[in-house]
């Protein structure tokens, strides 16, 4: 009885495989078995079909009651033919096929989902973007501990995105190809800036009479300039011109010599100026000459003078 029941359950499981349209159970004398079928019929009668406009009848189940015209399958005598058993066996073997078995299918493109902390080397064979950045001399290893940069670079398409940035930096800004790698190594987030926005910032510098060579030098040395709004850069240039009584040419020369000084923390700039003038006793003209000759003094902090 139990062996036949297991066989029937197997037939139900592989009903589609064996092309069995409907299985009708014979009534059995086992009371608990009949109760299980009755319970299952009640639960099924409450379900609604997924087809719109149709419902399962409340008095009919997929396990139909016995009637005089039905083809009866007796639970106690049900068996599968050898052909059906072979078909089920082959299906199970195909479903459980070992990954170690030989296969002619090319799966070289299948790779595991890599965490953001993995090295770029894992992507190099399949990513044109990574290959082109490496060709430019970008120090990719600097970015591997930064999840945000990793996600940015891995999802960057070369033809539709990266190529446009390279052309902008080289042709519009004038950064030499040899300097593009080190420049992007310092500031990869330029690759998420809008090109139109960066173009407007370059046009601002040209409007302030910066030479093309000076603009290229500024961006190559300190690419974060392109992350600052025009209003911020304009305010900083005005700060240096007024604080140190600089001419326009002197401001432009200072920017080209040490561009990161312009975006340095203003509080530290004021502290150094106070230390040089008030504590060391230098006059404003002397402080101006010091700034133009040795601008790095203003990026060291007052601790260097204590």
Automatic annotation (TrEMBL):
What are the protein's UniProt keywords? Answer: Transit peptide
- Does the keyword section mention Transit peptide? yes
Query: Which superkingdom does the taxonomy of this entry point to?
Result: Eukaryota
Coiled-coil ranges from the UniProt annotation: none
Gene Ontology MF terms: nucleic acid binding
UniProt xrefs under Pfam families = mTERF
For this protein, the record's InterPro entries field holds: MTERF, MTERF_sf
**PANTHER family named among the record's database cross-references:** CGI-12 PROTEIN-RELATED, TRANSCRIPTION TERMINATION FACTOR 3, MITOCHONDRIAL
Membership in a protein family = Belongs to the mTERF family.
Please identify the protein, giving its name as recorded.
Answer: Transcription termination factor 3, mitochondrial-like
Q: Which organism is it from?
A: Diaphorina citri
Identify the taxonomic lineage of the organism of origin. Answer: Eukaryota, Metazoa, Ecdysozoa, Arthropoda, Hexapoda
